[in-house]
Amino acid sequence: MTKVNWYLCCGLFFLLLVIGGFGMGAWKLHRVLSDANAVPVATVAVSGTRQFTTDTEIQQALHGLMQRSLFTTNVNQVQTALEQLPWVYRASVRRDWPDKLKVVLQEQQPVAHWNQGEWLNTHGQVFTAPAETALDYLPYLAGPEASAEDVLQGYRQIRALLKLHGFGLKSLTLNPRHAWRAVLDNGILLELGREDKMARIQRFINVYPVLAKQDKKVARVDLRYDTGMAVGWDNAKSESR
Fold first, then answer.
1. Residue 121 included in any domain
2. Tens digits of residue pLDDT in 175-185
3. Do 93 and 202 lie in a common domain?
4. What is the pTM of this model?
5. Confidence at 99, pLDDT banded by 50, 70, 90
6. Looking at the predicted structure, is the pLDDT value of residue 66 above 90?
7. 186-191 contacts: CB < 8 A, separation 24 or more?
8. What is the CATH number of the domain that holds 82?
9. Could you tell me if 67 and 161 lie in one domain?
10. How many other CB atoms sit within 10 Å of the CB of residue 223?
11. Number of domains making up the chain
12. Which of 89, 166, 207, 237 has its CA 20 to 30 A from that of 97?
C-alpha cells in the first residue's frame, strides 16, 4: 500500500491557493482599471499654440474615445483622431496619473494657398482645411499634382529676387506644360516660360524703370524670348516689343 505524502499534498494545495489568489486579485484589478466609473478620464489637458482648432472640434473628435478608463484608453486612437482635424499637423498624447490625458497639438503652418481650396505648409506639403479670411494675404500658388514642393521653392526664389528691387509676388503658377506664370502685387502678369525663369525675372527688373515712365500702365510682360520681351498695356489694342 502506497503511503500518501501529506506534506507534499498540503504544499501543492497551498501553492494552488496562492496562485488562485493572485489570479483572482489580478482579475479584480483588471476590472477596476477597466471600469470607466472607477478610474475615469476626468480631464483632457490640451497645450500648444492654436489659431484655428477650437475646443469644440477637439471634443467632437474625442467623443466616444473617452468612455473608457484612464488605463484602457488607447492613446494612439486619440492621437489619430486629433490628427484628422483639418488644421492639426501633429498631436502627442500621454496619460497623467491619476485621471488626466495630456495632449500637445501642433497646428499646420500655412504659407500659401494651393490650387482650388487647399493649402501648403512650410514643408511644401498639401493639406485640406476650411477657408480663413485671416489668411487671405498669403500668396496663391498652383501647379500639377506632386509639384507643390517645386512650386513653393520657385516662389521663394522669385520672391527673394523681386523683394530686393521693391516688388512683391502675389501668385505663381506652374502649368501642365511646366511653364511658369507670375503675378506681382501691383497686378503685372509675367509670362516666364519653361526655362531660365530667374534670368527672365532679372530682365524684367532691369527694364521696368523704362516701362514705368510710359504714359500707360503695364498689364502684362511676356518674357518667353531669348532676347527682348512683349509688353501688354492696360486698355491697349496691341503689344509693343
1. yes
2. 999 999 999 99
3. no
4. 0.78
5. confident
6. no
7. 187/219, 188/218, 188/219, 188/220, 188/221, 189/219, 189/220, 189/221, 190/220, 190/221, 190/223, 191/220, 191/221, 191/222, 191/223, 191/224
8. 3.10.20.310
9. no
10. 22
11. 2
12. 89
Find the range with the poorest average confidence among 21-25, 152-156, 191-195.
Answer: 21-25
The CATH code of the domain that includes 139 is 3.40.50.11690
Q: SS in 3 state form for the chain? A: CCCCCHHHHHHHHHHHHHHHHHHHHHHHHHHHHHCCCCCECCEEEEECCCCCCCHHHHHHHHCCCCCCECCCCCHHHHHHHHHCCCCEEEEEEEEECCCEEEEEEEECCEEEEECCCEEEECCCCEEECCCCHHHCCCCEEECCCCCHHHHHHHHHHHHHHHHCCCCCEEEEEECCCCCEEEEECCCCEEEEECCCHHHHHHHHHHHHHHHHCCCCCEEEEECCCCCCCEEEECCCCCCEC
